[in-house]
Write a structure and sequence with these properties.
The protein has about 140 residues and is mostly helical. It is built from seven helices and no strands.
Amino acid sequence: MTIQETILSDLERAVKNKDISNRENLKVIFSELQRQKTKILTDDTTIYILQTLKGWEEDRLIKCDVKEGGSRYLDILNNYIPESMQVKELNENAIKEWIIKNIDFSKYKNKFASIKLIKSNLGPGADGSLIHKIIEEM
């Protein structure tokens, strides 16, 4: 059973059991999976989407200054991302080192145009605002 199928199965179970909290959170997750061009997703694609949703939720919690308790939504997302695939936040030094090794700013009219390439290569573990700050300092 794929991760996408597991999520759908869990959603159906939550609806049947009238588990409102899980139902609503799983609906959000499943709708995001259904928004993709391909309706049947590989586990790798599903995990990437879940990691992206996780990053957005973590950013929201930071902006809302939630320190304790976290969020049920975040817990549910983490349940579907295998431990070995959990995104570890890249620190400033790791991002800077990658940029120095891989990006030639002379190929860009504006060095900030490289952010999309950097983010796509480093994945969800690289915070966009941190990348922007690092490039600004270079």
